[in-house]
């Protein structure tokens, strides 16, 4: 069992990949992260195999029986189908080698997906107690805080830290190098914080965790990322709506009242979005979400290219990492906007839906949506998640809604994938724990 413990240690270590930045590489915010993550997963896998090989006969049979039950989970099967579809899309895509290995800048593709899948399976097989997941969430929260701390130190100009200066109008990048990633990453961070607050009883834990809530929220604000803002709003609304439909009368009425107040407040702020007050509070960007906005329009044009490319390769798409090829072929000249700083090159459709549609075809997109289909089926149609209280179920629903909504306007990368697979592994544990 010692080998299994070491394997779990490296799984925890993998969650820290997001904090590393290496200025000696061409892409400081990307390269060392995926190198570190893959190294940690490889080490975890090696020690898992050693632990498995050194089990006694009786332990071996017991482990096989338990592993078989866990791997038969509908959610694990759905994730496996998605990963298989992702890899097949690369094999039958425009450039199979590029789809599998990606490039130095992104570090995604089939090989990255295989590492994420191994990470997910090891979580399923080794994290058998709630304390394992609580430890993972603690590491993730620590990583989120260190990610923010790195950005602060870089913004203050501390030697050895790479980043943008801390000043009004400058969007916060942390150690991720992209404001959009920071916002989405911290949505998961908030989920971990609230789940830990609900699960841990000690006063010291509360003292440490509660200050992280305003820190994470403030950081999302400083990123000025509208996708994360929409995701946060969707998550809060989902939690309050779930609570408003609960059996607890007082809690139900309070949640319904808060939801109504927030909706009215949001509508009011949207109406005055161009006022000096909103500009002073740096809220203009959050509420300047219109169909005529240049950022919105550019996404529509890019999505149009994705659809045109999908029509040419409808089954398995162009293959992961090959969106730029179809974007060039079906380039929309409206990306050239006179006297405006418009983007004219994309290697992603900036939407998880259109990215998977274009790059993995209808097979990959259905595989991806099937993962959440299973999750929602568990949530609404079958017996309640066995190891979650009603507030915890509300948190799971909120996190799912937040991720899916923000994903409508952004794409998945390692910091997001890492948390997504951790989250799915936890939901699978929570459902099957008491079976």
From TrEMBL:
Source organism, top-level taxon: Bacteria
Entry keyword annotation includes Transmembrane helix: yes
Family annotation (Pfam families): Wzy_C (PF04932)
Compartment annotation: Membrane
Membrane-related topology note: Multi-pass membrane protein
Gene Ontology, cellular component aspect: membrane
Bilayer-crossing regions: 9-30, 36-55, 75-98, 110-127, 139-158, 178-197, 209-242, 254-272, 356-380, 400-431
Entries under InterPro entries matching the protein: O-antigen_ligase-rel_domated (IPR007016), WaaL-like (IPR051533)
Stretches assigned to the O-antigen ligase-related domain: 215-369
Protein keywords: Membrane, Transmembrane, Transmembrane helix
Protein name: O-antigen ligase-related domain-containing protein
């Amino acid at each position: 069992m010692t080998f299994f413990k070491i394997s779990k240690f490296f799984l925890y270590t993998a969650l820290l990949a997001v904090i590393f930045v290496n200025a000696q590489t061409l892409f400081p915010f990307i390269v060392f992260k995926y190198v570190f993550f893959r190294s940690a997963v490889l080490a975890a896998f090696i020690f898992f195999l050693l632990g498995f090989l050194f089990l006694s006969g009786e332990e071996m049979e017991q482990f096989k029986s338990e592993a078989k039950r866990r791997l038969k989970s509908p959610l694990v099967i759905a994730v496996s189908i998605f990963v298989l579809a992702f890899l097949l899309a690369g094999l039958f895509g425009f450039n199979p080698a590029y789809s599998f290995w990606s490039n130095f800048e992104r570090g995604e593709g089939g090989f990255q997906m295989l590492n994420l899948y191994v990470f997910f399976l090891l979580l399923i097989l080794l994290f058998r107690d709630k304390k394992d997941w609580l430890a993972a969430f603690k590491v993730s929260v620590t990583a989120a805080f260190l990610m923010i701390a790195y950005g602060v130190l870089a913004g203050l100009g501390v030697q050895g830290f790479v980043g943008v200066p801390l000043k009004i109008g400058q969007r916060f990048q942390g150690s991720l190098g992209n404001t959009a990633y920071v916002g989405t990453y911290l949505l998961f961070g908030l989920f971990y914080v609230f789940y830990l607050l609900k699960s841990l009883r000690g006063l010291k834990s509360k003292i440490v965790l509660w200050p992280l809530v305003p820190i994470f929220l403030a950081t999302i604000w400083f990123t000025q990322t509208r996708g994360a803002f929409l995701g946060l709003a969707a998550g809060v609304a989902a939690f309050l709506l779930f609570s408003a439909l609960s059996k607890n009368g007082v809690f139900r009425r309070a949640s319904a009242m808060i939801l109504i107040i927030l909706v009215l407040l949001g509508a009011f702020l949207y109406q005055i979005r161009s006022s000096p007050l909103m500009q002073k509070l740096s809220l203009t960007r959050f509420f300047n979400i219109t169909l005529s906005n240049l950022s919105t329009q550019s996404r529509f044009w890019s999505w149009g290219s994705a659809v045109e490319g999908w029509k040419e390769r409808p089954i398995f798409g162009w293959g992961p990492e090959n969106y730029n090829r179809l974007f060039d072929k079906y380039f929309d000249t409206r990306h050239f906007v006179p006297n405006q700083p418009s983007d004219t090159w994309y290697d992603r459709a900036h939407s998880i839906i259109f990215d998977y549609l274009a790059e993995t075809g209808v097979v990959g997109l259905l595989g991806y949506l099937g993962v959440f289909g299973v999750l929602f089926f568990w949530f609404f149609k079958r017996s309640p998640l066995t190891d979650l209280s009603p507030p915890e179920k509300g948190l799971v629903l909120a996190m799912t809604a937040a991720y899916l909504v923000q994903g409508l306007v952004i794409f998945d990368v390692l910091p997001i994938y890492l948390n997504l697979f951790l989250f799915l592994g936890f939901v699978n544990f929570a459902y099957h724990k008491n079976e």
